[in-house]
User: What shape does this take?
Amino acid sequence: MSGFTLAPALRSGETVHAAWCFLPSPPVAETIAREGFAAIVIDEQHGLWDTATILAGIAAVRHGGAAAVVRTPIGDFAAASRALDVGADAVIAPMINTAADARALVGATRFPPVGERSWGPARAMALAGLSDIKAYLRDANEITLTFAMIETETALGNVEAIAATAGIDALFVGPWDLSIALFKGTDIDPNSPAVDRALERVLAAAAKAGKFAGVYCSSADEARAAAARGFRFVIAGNDHAFLRGGADACLGGLTAARQ
Assistant: This one.
């Protein structure tokens, strides 16, 4: 079905590199999309986005040629359903710790018989250029994706059951939060051996269940390494870092010119 690009890309075997947006600016998200990222994640959990800016942001990202993904607040499965209704290709739900959590998430993001998502995708259909409501209902469970975040010791212990849950398409790891959990709040180190071992467990669970694995990375180097390990949906940086890096490079050039 036209208008949804992330699911077909992943199912065709592509590794999708994405950018993360904390700042509630649709033009910034669109600009980053236009630079060539295949997907943009709008962060409603730790970012500054609200319903109105998400509505505009999804349209802007699509206009920029990328798939729009929304990371929802903890436990807010209604927000996940709403994100799909307004045109997101996928949702990422944080703190999915058990198979029961996964089933509750699926209940909000999948139409029956897989879940219990209710009807309201007028904006999603408009953005995708679709008019056949029966075709959207038939295909929606395949053209949109549901990601479960694995970021606690409890989630790691249940990772195979979460991955095996019908309607969960992918596991997604936030190494920063996962490191805090693994170190029981005494440290934060996303590059630690403990986190590295946890990443392998997530990759193995996803592969066993025939699902995709995604991960948040802070740089292109980290993203390349993650892709080489088998992660298929890979964040390669965020809007805040891009802005700071550009400003720093500009100021560095001005300083050098004065010397």
